[in-house]
Amino acid sequence: MRPSPTVVGREEQLSPLSGYALVAQVSRGVGTTVYRGATGEGARVAVKLFDEALLSEQMPGVARARRLSAPTAVEVLDVGKVDGRLAVVSEWVDGASLAELLAELGKTGVRLPLSVALRIVAEVARALVAAHELEGGALAHGALEPRHVLCAWDGSVKVCGFGGPARRGRGLRAERAYVAPEVRRGESVDVLSDVYSVGALAYHLVTGLTPVQAAVRMPLSSTAVAPLPSRLNPGLDSSLDEPILDALDRDPGLRPHSMRALCGQLDRCFEELGLEQTPSELAQLVRELFPDRVPKSPPKAVVLPRPAVREPPAPIVEDEEEEWTAAAQPRRSGRRLLVPGAVALAAVAAAFFGLRGTGQPSAEAASEKQAAVERDIELPSAEQGKVSVTLRPETAVAPKANELARPTSATSTRAAVVKKAVPSKPAKKAKPKATRGKRGR
User: Fold this and answer.
1) CA 234 – CA 218 distance, rounded (Å)
2) Relative to the CA of 371, which of 281, 310, 420, 428 has its CA 20 to 30 Å away?
3) Apex CA 34: angle with CA 31 and CA 35, to 5°?
4) Highest-confidence segment of 85-89, 156-160, 372-376
5) Which pLDDT tens digit goes with each residue over 55-80?
């Protein structure tokens, strides 16, 4: 929200300006110096210092300019004094002035594209409409020229320099080529003198010459102000000659009666010529002419990949008939787990003895071993090594259904342990004679 403006009309109402730092000088004009400044938070601002002799003369215009609010006009943020000099703080427009833009184009002999030129003129006219229709009375600019027109990197156009002293005659604040004839003769600035300035600006942008320069190059009649723009620019439509030359009339009464009327003529030209009023073309032009001054774009945000969402585990279905492995389910007490485990271990032991022995074990010996395993007793060890399989069941209370997912208590069944002892070295025996028959593998 914009702060309410402070009406400043007298020198004693000004307070010392604080909270700003002057960083670098930007330009110097007639009785003024513009600096690039910064606020305490680091935001950029423009600070214009007026000479002490202009303090009393500048006060009324500054008070009026601070009440001006328009999208195409530079906003005045604060007013104060610095070392006895009037200081005006306004918003900083990051870009280039129209004077710099024309100077760069002049080096290559290239004119502004027609759509860009007319859009700049239309935006300047809209800013002056807001100033001329300001509540409390019209605020005339009185010093409109290319250096007071700012072109931002995004293609927007803003007018600065409102509220300057109403100088006339030899003390002009702007170039004479853009100043109305009556003001050059010593008359005061007003709305119609601003209309002439906009017409002179339009003439320069579409032809590449100011009206004064064009009048010197081409002979004119006594009543003509400047040559027809379409004669200087063959590619220009002749429909633009009338509105531009009407604004340049020597007689203020023959000019468009208001800035709004001139805006209406410019809008009709856009429609008749089929031109679009978009900022993209101007933005591209300014960036191409001043590549070293264009701020670098901020780094793109790095989008990190989203972590994979793991699905929750499936609920455990309690089924007494399902056989669970020891790795996936808690151990259960009782003979239900012991018997299948004992059978498996017996099969391993039988295979071991079969491989180590000299022949197949008899059916009677196998049945004795199976019966011993089922009775949970200790098996006799083999001669080649001592291998024991011990199953030690313990009495435990069967867990309830809702306790199946929890670890068993200390009284639960311990797992079967298979221990393989280091085989003892047998006494050396004489090697048997080779005979045909079954051997151990």
Assistant:
1) 15
2) 420
3) 145
4) 156-160
5) 777 778 888 889 999 999 999 999 88
* pTM listed for this prediction: 0.64
Burial of 131 (0-12, 13-18, 19+ CB in 10 A): buried
Q: How buried is 440 (Cβ within 10 angstroms: 0-12 exposed, 13-18 middle, 19+ buried)?
A: exposed
Going from the C-alpha of 274 to that of each of 204, 238, 249, 257, 306, the distances in angstroms are 22, 14, 27, 26, 49
Hey, what are 364's tokens? 């009677």
Give the pair of three-digit tokens for residue 271. Answer: 């429609």
CB within 8 A of 303, min separation 6: which ones?
A: none
| Structure confidence by residue, pLDDT tens digits, 247-298 | 999 999 999 999 999 999 988 988 888 888 789 999 999 999 999 998 876 4
Domains of the chain: 13-92 (3.30.200.20), 94-294 (1.10.510.10), 334-354+366-374 (no CATH)
DSSP reduced 3-state for 181: helix
Cβ count within 10 A of residue 100: 18
